[in-house]
């Protein structure tokens, strides 16, 4: 194989119509999609010899821990840095994850993911900047489970794969389940678990999940999202019962 063909869905501005361009890239063993995109940026000429603007995309860590190079590659949302050309079908098609607003070409705005984290208070609240000593110890089984959940780097591919995350739904997305479970299992974060659970029981919350399990199939870190879905649903049900019978007994 002397060259590879990239079919890239491009978009000049957030309100522009998308269009496709094909690029021919010289083949080298062990190259990834980022390497191929870097060639198109240095040589912005389409496969049929037409000069064009350099393709725009984002990259940072190049080791699958930042999520900014997430895009749809051959129909599957994933990271471009770990997508090896030798392991992909050809020609290679690239498009932005349209669950999010497109800024330009393959660059997207993942801002609504971080807005979702704010809504469900996805942090461990510790007041003050002074030394408060060592934190509480966690049970080893909980620590191992929490470590798996903490691998989420908000890359957004589970959001793009989920059929319930779209412009007609307020669903915050499948990644939120594991974020709530992670913070609620922490000895300090547990103090605010009712607030997190209630936030996700409201508009755009857990009722929007259709349990299609696409999220688990595409998660690059193998996070047990469906297990988190079950755990958070159970916590929500228990919280509802406690709230109902608590208010009933106070009458």
TrEMBL record:
Keyword annotations: 2Fe-2S, 3Fe-4S, 4Fe-4S, Iron, Iron-sulfur, Metal-binding, Oxidoreductase, Tricarboxylic acid cycle
Superkingdom of origin: Bacteria
Enzyme Commission code(s) on record: 1.3.5.1
Q: What would be one Pfam family of this protein?
A: Fer2_3
Q: Which residues form the 4Fe-4S ferredoxin-type domain?
A: 143-171
What cofactor does its activity depend on?
[3Fe-4S] cluster; [4Fe-4S] cluster; [2Fe-2S] cluster
> Where along the sequence do coiled-coil regions lie?
none
Instruction: Kindly give the PANTHER family that the UniProt entry links to this protein.
Output: SUCCINATE DEHYDROGENASE [UBIQUINONE] IRON-SULFUR SUBUNIT, MITOCHONDRIAL, SUCCINATE DEHYDROGENASE IRON-SULFUR PROTEIN
Similarity annotation = Belongs to the succinate dehydrogenase/fumarate reductase iron-sulfur protein family.
Please report the name of this protein according to its UniProt entry: succinate dehydrogenase
Species, as recorded: Salimicrobium humidisoli
């Amino acid at each position: 194989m002397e060259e590879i063909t990239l079919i890239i869905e491009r978009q000049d501005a957030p309100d522009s119509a998308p269009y496709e361009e094909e690029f021919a890239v010289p083949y080298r063993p062990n190259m990834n999609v980022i390497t191929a995109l870097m060639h198109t940026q240095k040589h912005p000429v389409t496969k049929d010899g037409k000069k064009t603007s350099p393709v725009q995309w984002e990259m940072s860590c190049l080791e699958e821990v930042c999520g900014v190079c997430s895009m749809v590659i051959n129909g599957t949302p994933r990271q471009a840095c770990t997508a090896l050309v030798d392991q992909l079908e050809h020609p290679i098609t690239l498009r932005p994850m349209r669950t999010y607003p497109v800024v330009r070409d393959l660059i997207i705005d993942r801002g609504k993911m971080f807005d979702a984290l704010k809504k469900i208070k996805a942090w461990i609240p510790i007041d003050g900047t002074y030394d408060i000593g060592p934190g509480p110890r966690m049970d080893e089984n909980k620590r191992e489970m929490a470590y798996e959940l903490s691998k989420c780097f908000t890359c957004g591919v589970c959001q793009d794969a989920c059929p319930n995350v779209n412009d007609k739904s307020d669903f915050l997305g499948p990644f939120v389940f594991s974020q709530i479970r992670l913070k609620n299992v922490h000895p300090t974060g547990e103090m605010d678990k009712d607030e997190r659970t209630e936030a996700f029981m409201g508009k755009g919350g857990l009722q929007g999940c259709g349990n299609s399990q696409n999220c688990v199939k595409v998660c690059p870190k193998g996070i047990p999202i469906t297990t988190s879905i079950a755990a958070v649903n159970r916590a929500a049900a228990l919280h509802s019962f406690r709230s109902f019978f608590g208010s009933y007994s106070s009458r």
